[in-house]
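Notes to self after the Tuesday call (sharing in case useful).
The group wants a holo model before anyone commits to mutagenesis around the pocket. I volunteered. Ligand is xanthosine-5'-monophosphate. Logging inputs and output together so the record is complete.
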Amino acid sequence: MTEGSAPAATAGADADSVPAGSSSHEEVLVLDFGGQYSQLIARRIRECGVFSELLPHDVPVEQIQSRKPKALVLSGGPASVYADGAPTLRPELLELGVPVLGICYGMQLMVHELGGRVEQAEAGEFGRTTLEVLEPGRLMAGTPATQQCWMSHRDTVFEPPPGFTALASSPESPVAACEDPARGLYGIQFHPEVVHTPYGTEILTRFLRDVAGCTEEWSPASVITEQVEAIAAQVGEGHAICGLSGGVDSATAALLVHRAIGDQLTCVFVDHGMMRKDEAEQVVTAFRDQLQVPLIHVDASDRFLEKLAGETEPERKRKIIGEEFIRVFEEEAAKIADADYLVQGTLYSDVIESGGDGHAASTIKSHHNVGGLPEDLEFDLVEPLRTLFKDEVRAVAAEMGLPERFVWRQPFPGPGLGIRIVGGEVTRERLDILREADAILQEEVRAADLYRTLWQSFCVLPVVRSVGVQGDERSYAYPIVIRAVTSDDAMTADWARLPYDLLEKVSSRIINEVPGVNRVALDVSSKPPATIEWE
Ligand code: XMP
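Result:
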């Protein structure tokens, strides 16, 4: 047993449908044995300047060979090499003539395969662990004799295979790292990809640079040329449409496609009337005026508000907004006569999490693909961000001149302010109140230089009224709740400890400047058990 995690989706993905990859840059392939951190390994390798992709551990060997990788990495995983049905290592992978680095379970597999001894340790090692370097070898050269690392395993290596040198040990792992440079085989029991292993990046760099001979020249921006060429080849003389939301993913996808096919792209921005203050104008100004991308701006707020009339139940509101969005989008798409391609901002994490179908373009079959577009909308997809992680998309966006406001925009839900008016009907008056209050919060959070440190910061309007006294008069008005959270992925979140001075300023400005509000409260709940949004 190594990591106590669920197998990653790629481990079970269809191994025959792995993307062809790009041969224009050097790459390192990470074979996924179901580890919790497999994605992170690919990310760290990219941060070292080497393109990396995660493939299922059972991907056909010919497919690996055809991509001419500079090295292979075998990820960790939750299994024991002795467990029935545990993923195994095909020995030919160790004989492809490219260096191999096994991490955690990946190391145990390699050692087990080559005749070393893997057994259950007396106690598992989970979390921060001290590593004693016995012999730096090639992999750990230049790193301290005693160093911290992060581990997550129960089985461990007691004896390296013949020909290997043990490089390091930890309290429960007699062989916590080993190597056989002659055969290009390297193994580490700890996780170099997590931040809690301070020399992790250095050890990865040593493997990439000194062992695999990578030149470390890849950067997210290098994707631009490659993608622009690929899009031009895919779309040819065709016409593409792209639904812009104001978020960085759809914006970046649109910019790449626009660079490739120019005015054969039409962007559609459906304004449902539940965007934040000035947001719709900012999208129009940035795209139509600054970036010169053909853009249809549909102000459909009346339609959405009519459909939402009388509704208070969160999921029904989402459904109404989602369905109306489809209708408006379809109407606009129908006006663009020959549109046969739909641009989507699908990211690499979406591809991995959905099992990785691996194709550069596919046809929409399910509404899940596009967050609400229907099954019978038959476009070919153009997905230029399919190989990129979120932070890499931001780098591409910045490189392509997307205004900083969009590059660094905090996540904003599709249904917008519609799910931030809670316990009562969504009306224009309430939207206006919430929009003004939210704008003040955004302005002050930015002024305090906290915007980027927060995952999200926003206001909620509970439809209740409370008594106040304003200008010697009794008021009976709405409260506004401030919600600000820190998070890495929105799966868990903590309430942000905003400075009191900032809270005081925001509270006093909202109450003084927004008619209809006489009270400001702060949400101090973490997720779980609360959620980030109130609905
Ligand atoms: P919760 O509230 O579930 O939110 O903790 C997690 C993340 O998802 C966003 N969110 C949505 N995004 N449509 C979206 O596009 C939605 O209906 C929706 N609901 C929540 C939320 O803002 C947070 O980032």
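Two things stood out.
Confidence is low (pLDDT under 50) at residues 1-22, 357-371.
The CA atoms of residues 225 and 256 lie 9 Å apart.
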